[in-house]
Amino acid sequence: MTEPIISIDQVNHYFGSGNLRKQILYGITADVDPGEVVIMTGPSGSGKTTLLTLIGALRSTQEGSLKVLGEELRNSSEAQRVALRRNIGYIFQAHNLLNSLKAKQNVMMALEIHPHLSIKEQAEMAEEMLKAVGLEDRMNYYPDELSGGQKQRVAIARALVSNPKLVLADEPTAALDKKSGRDVVEIMRSLAKDRGSAIVMVTHDNRILDVADRLIHMEDGELESYDLETQAPPDKAIALG
Amino acid sequence: MLFAIPLAWLQLKRERMRLIIAIAGIGFAVFLMFVQLGFRDALFNSAIRLHENVNGDIMLISTRSNSLISIQNFPQRRLYGLLGVEGVDKISPIYVGFGLWKNPFWEGLPKSQTRQIMVLGIDPNDNIIGVEGFDDKARSLIRFQDQILFDKKSRAEFGPIPTKFPEYDKKGELITTEIADRKVKIAGLFELGASFGADGNTITSEANFLRIFTRRDKGDINIGVISLKPGADLYKALEGVKKSLPGKFTVNPTLKPEEAREDFVVGEMRVLSKKSFIEVERKYWQNSTAIGFIFTLGTVIGFVVGIVIVYQILYTDVTDHLSEYATLKAMGYKNRYLLKIVFQEALILSIMGYIPGYFLSLLMYTGTRNATALPLLMTTERGIFVLCLAITMCLVSGAIAVRKVQDADPADIF
């Protein structure tokens, strides 16, 4: 039995303080195993992004226990969280590439925080990764010279280049048309599978639900889990698309 | 410290128009500081030009004098007793007077025909002023009645003497003009330079000086210059002068003890080493006129303008890149990395702005030097000082702008 890569146990989360304090997450409990692809759905305001930022160590966990890559995030310090972030790959809704850097340099930025790599090694790894996402002829293009799908593929290369055990994605296909959205998700899934990285992806896009091993549906801060190998996705998840 | 990817530079380079504006702005601030500091130093240097070139070790002036342009006279006989002081070689007088000079090549109105000029009367036997052109031959020329030497670096308003002189010289003639209604002949040229106090200078003998300034009596001198024997100790000589002069010994209580050793008052005479003689004149312009303050204020304004410009540029830059910075934080970059980026940008801007500012100032210095005869020169010290100011200016702006970086919250970008 392998240790889960994310283990969430009775996590509550609140925003605001005093009279304005509002509970967002209610007793969330879930595990994600290494290499698993999990899709998170739910209406807006259901707390999925909050949960994603907690897993991504972008916020401090307030109540319950949240372990990511074996690290307890409850009451974690900023320094602990910064260190953990380096082992997680992020793909954002907007590609969030650095506009002043070329595609290859953007990918290298994810490696520069790993000080044991020489610049040459960084460049080689970045080139290889961009080849893997099918951008070998776009390495020295600036983000504004690339199409939406190409930008998102650079973002995937950036998220995966350091071989993270966990990749978090927030609606990576939202800004893309059907075909490029599909391509992006396929690339993400196959690369993650090759490297044994787990993926947690928030999406509203019901066209891509089939890439997942498991579906987590969030509503009003509570969570339901469906194993897609044995169950069909629930109607409410599909209807939202 | 630099990173594998020089993000600071790449970000600046990407926004080319903004970079050019930033460089222009900083260059302007640098230029402003160079102009102000340059003029200030030029003023001080021009004011002490004569002082620096007096050949002597100890100067005696009246206690009522506070600067060369308002120098008071005192009876020369007060100095006779000093010849006996150990180490003193000789004592030489300098007469200082201001009189109206008539431009001998006047072209008519609207230009003015007359202008005030400084006249120095000296003993032609003594090589008392060490400037180019004031040699033995020149000193022998002013022994003749009404012959004077003219400073070729005087302002142009005194007439085109430097160009006309050789023409007349070839014909074997001398240019004739008037100082304070006395006809004089220009027998030679020397090189001292205009100052804020005196637009032009002439040197002549004591006897000729008294012919020009008829109301001055022989023996009413302005500066007594003591030359010491070779190897004589300055401080021993100063001590000797102190004992030989009549009257009460007093010092300025604000002076440091080592300064008071070479700047003191005995009776009605102020005794100064050459160093203090220069210093007193410099301090007069620096502290008791508005000029020093004005130029320092100008420099401060340049500095503040620079801070505002760089801050604006950096703030806009940080705001534009806020989501990128938040992304970097989400990827595990520390705040420190982002702070370094901002400070690197500040540093790059300061140096890139300094270079055009420096060359522009150099151009302006040359132009002003040719137009005003002021000693406006780019010195290494000022170059380094302004570079330091420019860097400080940019770092201060950086320090204000980095607060914006703290706003980059990685939790906001999901």
How would you sum up this structure, described in words?
- The complex is a heterodimer of chains A (241) and B (414).
- By secondary structure, chain A is an alpha/beta fold.
- In chain A, helix 3 crosses helix 4, helix 3 runs parallel beside helix 5 and helix 4 packs across helix 5.
- Chain A starts with 5 loop residues before the first strand and ends with a helix.
- The model of chain A has no long low-confidence stretch (mean pLDDT 85).
- Chain B has 2 domains: 163 residues, no CATH class; 226 residues, no CATH class.
- Chain B is built from 13 helices and 13 strands.
- In chain B, helix 2 runs antiparallel to helix 13 and helix 12 packs antiparallel against helix 13.
- Chain B is elongated, with a radius of gyration of 29 Å.
- At the A-B interface, helix 1, helix 2 and helix 3 of A face helix 1 and helix 11 of B.
Quick tags:
heterodimer, A: 241 residues, alpha/beta, six-stranded mixed beta sheet, 7 helices, globular, B: 414 residues, alpha+beta, eleven-stranded mixed beta sheet, two-stranded antiparallel sheet, 13 helices
The arrangement of helices and strands of chain B along the chain is HHHEEEEHEHEEEHEEHEHEEHHHHH
Number of helices of chain A: 7
Structural class of the helices, strands and pairings of chain B?
alpha+beta
Sheet with the most strands of chain A? Answer: 6 strands, mixed
Shape of chain B: elongated
Number of H/I helices of chain B: 13
Let me know the number of strands of chain A.
10
Distance between the termini of chain A: 35 Å
Strand content of chain B: 15-25%
Largest interface: A-B, 33 and 24 residues
Strand order of the largest sheet of chain B: 6-7-5-8-4-3-10-1-13-12-11
Low-confidence stretches of chain A: none
What would you call the shape of chain A? globular
- Indicate the structural class of chain A: alpha/beta
**What's the gyration radius of chain B in Å?**
29 Å
Number of domains of chain B: 2
Largest sheet, strands/sense/barrel of chain B: 11 strands, mixed
Instruction: Report strand order across the widest sheet of chain A.
Output: 6-7-8-3-9-10
Tell me roughly what share of residues is in helical segments of chain A. 25-40%
